[in-house]
Every structure is written in C-alpha cells, then in structure tokens.
Amino acid sequence: MVKVLGLDIGGANLKLTVIDCVDGVISKVEVFTEYFPIWRRGRENLPVAISNLIKRSAVESPDLAAITMTAELSDVYFSKTEGVHHIVDSTIRALKDVKLKFLNVHGELLSPEEAKSEPLDVAAANWYASGWLASKLSKDCLLVDTGSTSTSLVPVLNGRVAAKGFNDLEKLMNGELVYTGALRTNVAAIVSHVPVKGILTPVSSEFFAQSGDVHLMLGNIKPEDYTVDTPDGRGVSKIEVAARLARVVCADLDILSLDEIHSIASYVYRAQLTQIVEALNRLSESLNVDLRDKPAYTAGIGGEFLSKKALTISGFKNVTSISQYIGSNAAKVVPSYALALMAVEFLEGREPKNWRLF
C-alpha cells in the first residue's frame, strides 16, 4: 500500500489531502484544512501548525509528502526567497521522517535542497497542480478555482498546462490570477463606489468589510463557510454582517436599512464577477485562443457562485464543477488533492485506476 500527503501551505489556510492506494486502486481520500493566517499567528508557529494538521489526519508513516506553497508572498517575509526557505525548513521540522517533494512551476517534484536552490520556481506553484489535474479530464480546457482570497485561471491546451505566467506578477498581467476571492477580499478592493439611496457613493478605503460579508448577506455561503477572521472581530450573524457592509460607506444600521445594505452587497457581487470576466477576456487575448468552446471546470469555495457565474457570463457553454469527478471536499482544495495524486503516480509510476471517484 502507498500512503501519501498533498500539502498546500497558503498564507491564510493550510490544506492537506491524504490518499491511500493499494495495487493501483485508491482506497481512501481524506481532506483536512486549518485556518492559519501566518501574518497574525506568526511565521515561527508554522511548523507546529503543520504538525497539528498532520496529527488531525491521524496518518501514520506516509511514504511521501508532496508540497506546494503560496505563503511566501506574506509580508512576514521580506522576500519570496526568504519565504520559500522558511517554509521548506518548517515542513522539514514538522515532517521529520517523511520523504518530501516540492512542486515547481514546471511540474517537477524537487527535493528540499533543490527547492531552496530554486526558490522562485517553487513559489506559488500550486496552480500547476490544478492544471495537471484538469489535463486528465480534457486535453483542451480551462480550470477556474476561486478560493477564499484569489481566483486562479489555468488553461490546458494539447494536453499540457498552457499558462503563460510562471509567477504571480506574470499571472496578474496575463489574466491567469485575479486577487478576488469568496471570503477575504476587501470590499474596497472590489469597488470604488456603491449605490446608496439612488446615488453612486464613494466607499471608504478602510478594511471595514470583506467578500465573505457580501456572500453571506446574499446567501451564497452559509455561516459555517465563513472560516476566516472578520474585519471587526465580531461574529457572522446577519446583523453583524450588515453592520460591516454599512460601515463601508461610513454608515451604520441606524442610517441604512437591511434592504439598502442588500443592494450594496448585490452591487459588489456583480463587480466581483466583472473582475473575473475581465480576466477571462485577458487570458483569451494573451493565448490568442477562444477558450469559450472548450470545457471549463470550476473549483474552490467560490466555484459555484463566482467561477461558474463568471464563465457563464463570458459565454462558456460547457461548465462543470470538478467536484463531479473528485468529490465536493477535494474540489475545495484542488491543488492539495492534485499533489497527493501526483505523489501516488510518482511512487507507483502509473495513474491510479479509479482516481475519478465519480
């Protein structure tokens, strides 16, 4: 039996997938997540956080852990190189007796030493894992993964990941990365104005409300889906959410009604969809390919109400949630799941017969 881990170390969340494979057949898939805002909890606590996540999984003696990261972008690190080095060292400390491999932007699995010698190739390579998984579903397709913080657009052409950008900057330039997500995006980063009492009104640039408030107000997510800290440290009841959204225009619940606040949330939601639609257009232009006739797969916590909606607005006809192939839990942590599957293939030299669970 082969037992592997796929670990995605983000700046706000740690995501772990455990896969057991017996004679080329997957016998178990388990997914675990942990909210770990590294800028708040402290980089020095990352090894313990990883260790605790592994303990929660109750996995014993894994044969291989495949790892990717985006936490190196956090401003707890002065540079990405410093971040990659610290994250590699943290995983070594947390997974003392486990063989480790780190994914790079070319789809290679590197040793810890190799990863530290090529830090900019290892930084933010999680998108490659997602694209690699999508390439197993269709030789020409697009994966749109909307997580808590950002949206990743990964094209696959001729059976290969066809991204033009190999780092976050290049991805932003080519429409392959949009810093808009389902939970953590500052409302003031989505819109500069919102309609209030029939007047398009400027918003405050303070961090008063975030996208999680918008989507909870609109019913796109449930309270239990709001797994990140709120801007004001209060709860996620409808009244608390509404108060945060009112504050975006320097108001409160004595000044604005719930209906007026709902209208603000709807406007912000439409603006968020526009951000993703514009990225889809930029991506098609940069590739010089009309992607709209290709299959599109959605993933992440915002897969249904952000990714799918934006793809539909853009004219994509064949849009499917990747959960139909790997299950709803794995679909929320696609890079982690893909890495675990990649680790199985690395060890066994073949694709598991039943990696499509449905």
Brief characterization of the structure:
With 358 residues, this protein is an alpha/beta fold. It has helices spanning 38-41, 46-57, 80-94, 112-117, 119-122, 126-135, 168-174, 187-190, 211-218, 238-247, 258-287, 303-314, 323-326, 328-331, 334-348, and strands spanning 2-9, 13-22, 25-35, 64-69, 100-103, 109-110, 141-146, 151-157, 160-161, 177-178, 193-196, 199-202, 296-299, 319-321.
Task: Describe the model.
The protein is of the alpha/beta class and 358 residues long. The protein folds into 2 domains: 2-136 and 333-348, ATPase, nucleotide binding domain (Nucleotidyltransferase, domain 5); 139-321, conserved archaeal protein q6m145 (Nucleotidyltransferase, domain 5, 2-Layer Sandwich), CATH 3.30.420. Helices cover 41% and strands 20% of the residues. It has 15 helices and 14 strands. The protein has helices at residues 38-41, 46-57, 80-94, 112-117, 119-122, 126-135, 168-174, 187-190, 211-218, 238-247, 258-287, 303-314, 323-326, 328-331, 334-348; strands at 2-9, 13-22, 25-35, 64-69, 100-103, 109-110, 141-146, 151-157, 160-161, 177-178, 193-196, 199-202, 296-299, 319-321. It has a 6-stranded mixed β-sheet. Strands 7, 8, 9, 10, 13 and 14 form a 6-stranded mixed β-sheet that branches. Strand 1 (2-9) and strand 2 form a beta hairpin. Helix 9 packs across helix 11. The longest helix is centred in the last third of the chain and has 30 residues, at 258-287. The model has no long low-confidence stretch (mean pLDDT 97).
